[in-house]
Automatic annotation (TrEMBL):
The record marks W123, W176, W199 as: Electron transfer via tryptophanyl radical. PANTHER family: CRYPTOCHROME (PTHR11455), CRYPTOCHROME CIRCADIAN CLOCK 5 ISOFORM X1 (PTHR11455:SF9). It comes from Panagrolaimus superbus. Gene3D superfamilies: 1.25.40.80, DNA Cyclobutane Dipyrimidine Photolyase, subunit A, domain 3. Pfam families: FAD_binding_7. The lineage of its organism: Eukaryota, Metazoa, Ecdysozoa, Nematoda, Chromadorea. Residues 89-284 form the Cryptochrome/DNA photolyase FAD-binding domain. Its cofactor is (6R)-5,10-methylene-5,6,7,8-tetrahydrofolate; FAD. This is Cryptochrome-1.
């Protein structure tokens, strides 16, 4: 079983009054909204996203308020004008979209996949691999750093939620329900609709229109969205002294066995290319049964 007794959560840092939350929202939209599309996918940027999700989750601020404010800042336009604000509006729409999915397809709130045909997908039962994923010990730096961020702070950057979820379901082929449940046990902004929708999107059991062979390459994701390894160094102490941005993303490949052993960092839990082939085969097998 995965351990739930990590270092104390930093939940207290999220505590804000209603006035503070509104000011936080207004400042983000007015001062940072225009750059949102350019900054939102980079977890090392502390102000790349609004970080309003915890307050949306408990109703301290509404999506309607944010929509009205964003539209006003965009010259009362929803789909044109500022590229950044338009992107932010789209993200608010996705949040409501997943809530509507719960209403229209209530079976997804009952631990069932949106795509019923994926119910019989043969998942890999591996408590050890699941535990390593939960505790940030997969040997894939970007995945481990993301898990450590959540385990420590109770929050995870959205790009990293996609990377970690897809890694669990596509690289390790572990049931999305296990990851969904673990996230809800940790996230300060845990929301049934958004969390379920995100996990099923990543697992290709949900509303994603793309085929099941959409599988993120964790190395490429790491190189693209944390190019200098800034985020990785922050959350993985074992790798904090690696300055070479080529090595930081895949230390086991670029260091000698002796050098790597000194890091006390685990070797990769799997081979991404091989795992991708196995996952696609599992989905193909499922489609052949239909």
């Amino acid at each position: 079983m995965a351990s739930l007794d990590h270092a104390a959560f930093e939940y207290g840092k999220w505590s804000k009054s209603e006035e503070e939350i509104i000011k936080m929202a207004d400042n983000f939209i007015e001062l940072k909204g225009d750059n949102y599309k350019k900054t939102r996918d980079f977890p090392y940027l502390s102000d790349g996203t609004s970080r309003l999700s915890p307050y949306l989750a408990i109703g301290s601020i509404s999506a309607k308020y944010l929509m009205v404010k964003a539209r006003a800042a965009n010259n009362n336009k929803l789909s044109s004008g500022s590229e950044g604000i338009t992107t932010y509006i789209n993200e608010l729409c996705w949040r409501d979209f997943y809530r509507n999915i719960l209403v229209a397809f209530p079976h997804v709130s009952k631990n069932r996949p949106f795509k019923r045909e994926t119910e019989k997908l043969e998942w890999n039962e591996s408590p050890e691999n699941f535990d390593r994923w939960c505790n940030g010990k997969t040997g894939f730096p970007i995945v481990d750093a993301a898990m450590m961020q959540m385990n420590t702070t109770g929050w995870m950057h959205n790009r990293l939620r996609m990377i970690t979820a897809m890694f669990l379901t596509k690289d390790l082929l572990i049931n999305w329900r296990m990851g969904e449940s673990y996230f809800m046990s940790k996230l300060i902004d845990g929301d049934l609709a958004a969390n379920n929708g995100g996990w099923q999107w990543s697992a290709s059991t949900g509303t994603d229109s793309q085929p099941y062979f959409r599988i993120f390459n964790p190395l490429l994701q790491s190189q693209k969205f944390d190019p200098d390894g800034t985020f990785i160094r922050k959350w993985i102490p074992e790798l904090s002294n690696i300055k070479d941005k080529k090595i930081i993303h895949e230390p086991s490949k670029h260091l000698s066995a002796k050098e790597f052993s000194k890091l006390s960092y685990p070797k990769p839990i799997c081979d991404h290319a091989a795992s991708r082939i196995k996952t696609i085969a599992a989905f193909k097998k499922l489609s052949m049964r239909a």
